[in-house]
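WARN retry 2 of 3 for item q-0093 after timeout on previous attempt; input resubmitted unchanged.
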Amino acid sequence: MGLLFLEYLSGPKIFKCKCCKVDSASNDDIISKNFQGRFGKAYLFRNVVNISLGPNEERHLLSGLHTVNDIYCSSCQQILGWRYEKAHEESQKFKEGKYVLEKERMWKEGW
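OK item q-0093 returned
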């Protein structure tokens, strides 16, 4: 395995992987705190870092059918949430290219 390059975020409130404490997202990139994940409450972000994406999957979520990719921490491979690749309903198109991080899988620094 090669070197792991990590991006570090600045700011007073950072979300990190709960397992390895690697930066994942900034509080400034939250779009919505009103999402439901596999493990409870989740947040929608416009940008996340230090992740790898799983394969495309068709998934029936609360808001309808979506093509999504699971998100994994690039350091420890813990599943953190998912990325919206494609929304099949017009009213859900705003989610495309956005990321959902599960609150249960995150550690908050600076809160």
